[in-house]
Amino acid sequence: MPSNRRFHLAKRPEGVPDHDTFDLREVDTPDPGPGEALVRTLYLSVDPYMRDRMRAGESYADAWEVGDPLRGGVVAEVVDSNGAGLSEGQTVVGNLPWAEYATASGDSLTPVDTGGLPVSTALGVLGMPGRTGYFGTREVAQPKADDWMVVSGAAGAVGSVVGQLGELQGANVVGIAGSDEKVEWLTEELGFTAGINYKTEDVGARLDEVADGVDVYFDNVGGPVTDAVWGRLNVDARVAVCGQIALYNDEELPTGPRKLAKLIETRASVEGLLVQDFAPRFREATEHLAGLVAGGDLQYRETVTDGLEHAPEAFLGLFEGENIGKQVVKVAESDA
Q1: Euclidean distance between CA atoms 308 and 315, whole angstroms
Q2: Are residues 79 and 108 in the same domain?
Q3: Residues 135, 265: one domain?
Q4: 286-302: per-residue pLDDT in tens?
Q5: Using CA atoms, how far apart are residues 301 and 224, in angstroms rounded to an integer?
Q6: Region 90-105: what's the mean pLDDT?
Q7: First vs last Cα of the chain: how many Å apart?
Q8: CA separation for the pair 260, 268 (Å, rounded)
Q9: Strand (E) or helix (H) holding 177
Q10: Strands 4-9 and 22-27
Q11: CB count in 10 Å sphere of residue 18
Q12: How far apart are CA 228 and CA 251, in angstroms?
């Protein structure tokens, strides 16, 4: 059997994770049991929510135990199918370890059909981030024509989809991101109405300049950015809370000024978003997004890191804002 490298959680991080959080081990390549397939990883996804799984305690995702393999979205190629209903060489996507090889039951793996797009898009615009943007915009945020819609983390995999879908609904979209390069991408290529670099600009002051209040806020970051947006909510505003990356590395959540009084004034609604709640409709989202990409109405970017051994750097870079669009790790070339 081929050699197999796999990442495990070495310790629970205190604050910002570092390389000591990750343990790359040489392990046996597993044999597929009845109804399972052995797969070879082509691409793996790193996502901010994984930070929450590194801490002890309750969350919306089960915590990893120290010593557990790290897991996430993986595009892989079937090496051997032991009654899993899959063909050798078939490309699949599933929740799998950060490893070169893994086994999984056939019913936990989904054949990849990206309509001619790179298979890595099954982890991005046509995968979990794209579906999050689709349902978060369509079912939670619900932007309408002429709304002022603000998206934080707008140059990420989710935010860039959300903003473009808002535009297609006729909203005026303001994207908040962490570099001039990202703001330029949002405004010059994706067609956002305006962009704000939160690292160099006063978010509140810039919102006062470019927007007529905030009718819709799609929150991917929390923290000071959200504080600035919150004070500018319009009457009947809708807030979709998708992520809080600014707070994921905090050992204790800051209390800060009380903000709920703004909801009384504006009668705004706030709703959390978990894409898994929409699992029965995933095909709907993927087909709709694929059609928009094919028609030129939805653009995407990927930041690709080469080599399984560099997965920790790709993950840690998420918290420094190093990626534009979806961050993936390329582990191997397809043999197909």
Answers
A1: 12
A2: yes
A3: yes
A4: 999 999 999 999 999 99
A5: 27
A6: 97
A7: 19
A8: 10
A9: strand 172-177
A10: antiparallel
A11: 12
A12: 23
Average pLDDT, stretch 123-148? Answer: 97
For residues 142 and 103, membership in a common domain is answered with: no
Q: How far apart are CA 51 and CA 64, in angstroms?
A: 10
Q: Scan for tokens 């934080």, then name that residue.
A: 152
Q: Give the tokens for residue 244.
A: 């809080």
Positive or negative, the CA dihedral 62, 68, 70, 75 is negative
Phi and psi angles of residue 196, each rounded to the nearest 5 degrees, phi first: -130, 125
Q: Are 21 and 13 in contact (CB under 8 A)?
A: yes
CB 60 within 8 A of CB 50: no
- Alpha-carbon span 176 to 302, nearest angstrom: 18
Residue in the structure block whose two tokens are 């007529």: 212
Tokens describing residue 227: 């504080």
Structure tokens at 240: 């979709």
What's the pLDDT at 109? 97
DSSP label of 165: H
SS3 percent helix, strand, coil of the chain, rounded to 5, is 30, 30, 40
The domain containing residue 141 runs over which residues?
Answer: 128-276
- The residue type found at 242 is C
Looking at the structure, tell me whether residues 8 and 65 fall in a common domain: yes
**pLDDT tens for residues 256-286?**
656 888 999 999 999 999 999 999 999 999 9
Rounded-to-integer distance, Cα 312 and Cα 241, Å: 26
